[in-house]
Amino acid sequence: MEKEFGWVLDIVNYPLFTLEGHPVSLSNFLFGIALLILGYVLSNRGSRAFEQRVLSHLSMEDHLRYTLRRFVYYFLLMLSVLFTLRTLHVPLTVFTVIGGALAVGIGFGSQNLVNNFISGILVMVERPIRVGDFMEVDGIAGRVVAIGIRSTQVRTGPGALVTIPNTTFIEKNLINWTLSGTLSSAVRFGVAYGTDVRRLRELCLAELSEVSQVVKMPPPDFSFVDFGDNALVFDLSYSVIATAFPARKAIESEIRYRLNDLFTKHRIALPFPQRDIHLRAPEAIAVRVEI
């Protein structure tokens, strides 16, 4: 049996290349890949176990717990890589060659990868956004699902999962709605001239207080905006908690429904465009009225 399959052992043990006097065979190469895969799995499980058994018992915010878990994951992954290299007798001086090749690669277009990597570290340290935040950047708005070392995943209102490079959060104008705690908005409408505006103010504010998503502090406001061409124009301003950011359109729609029912109930007239028409004619126009 050994003679029949001796050629297989010769192929597996055949040295592919040599690193500072240490031959690296196919078996060593495959064993190294297996160790890296095992290290990846153990690093992932180890970081999760660290979060569940240690971080979950500490009084800290979710985003900080997530950041610490990611750092533990990368630390364990780095240890597994160093252990694999040590097991295969790969000298660390080989990284000088890799570093030189990386420097050449950066000059030919891999700088984006390095920029995203560095930006990912800055995002985790400075924390302009956190997991669970509602943010808007470069025309994309949604909830932050995961922050990686290269990119960040954001779930938008329609439910799409968008992957955004981390450099976007460093280079673009970033709006984090969650950091403010509340989100301000307003509904503009107009009523006909002759309406009792002070009574209208009381009715609108009372109706707005019935909307569950509207917070009490800061209190809602009723502003007399302008004397329009056909209507008296008002702004009904309010604030909602930041977590209601994806449903802001639905909240505005609910408020407009309530205002429409309020106007109908109290017979508050809504304006429509009115125009005075002047006719110019060289002769008088005959008008006949038939009864």
Description of the structure:
The protein is α+β, with helices and mostly antiparallel strands. The chain has 3 domains: 10-92, no CATH class; 134-176, SH3 type barrels, CATH 2.30.30.60; 182-265, Alpha-Beta Plaits. Helix content is 44%, strand content 21%. The protein is built from 7 helices and 10 strands. The strands form 3 sheets. A 5-stranded antiparallel β-sheet has the order 6-5-4-3-7. Strands 8-10-9 form a 3-stranded antiparallel β-sheet, covered by helices on one side. It has a two-stranded antiparallel sheet with strand order 1-2. The model has no long low-confidence stretch (mean pLDDT 78).
Helical fraction? 40-55%
The CATH topology of the largest domain turns out to be: Alpha-Beta Plaits
SSE series: HEEHHHEEEEHEEHEEH
CATH architecture annotation name of the largest domain:
2-Layer Sandwich
Q: What is the top-level CATH class of the largest domain? A: Alpha Beta
Q: What class do helices, strands and sheet pairing give?
A: alpha+beta
Distance between the termini: 121 Å
Number of helical segments?
A: 7
Can you tell me the overall shape?
elongated
Q: Please identify the oligomeric state.
A: single chain
Uncertain runs are none
> How many DSSP E strands?
10
Mean pLDDT: 78
How many domains would you count in the coordinates?
3
Question: What is the CA-based Rg, rounded?
Answer: 34 Å
Strand content: 15-25%
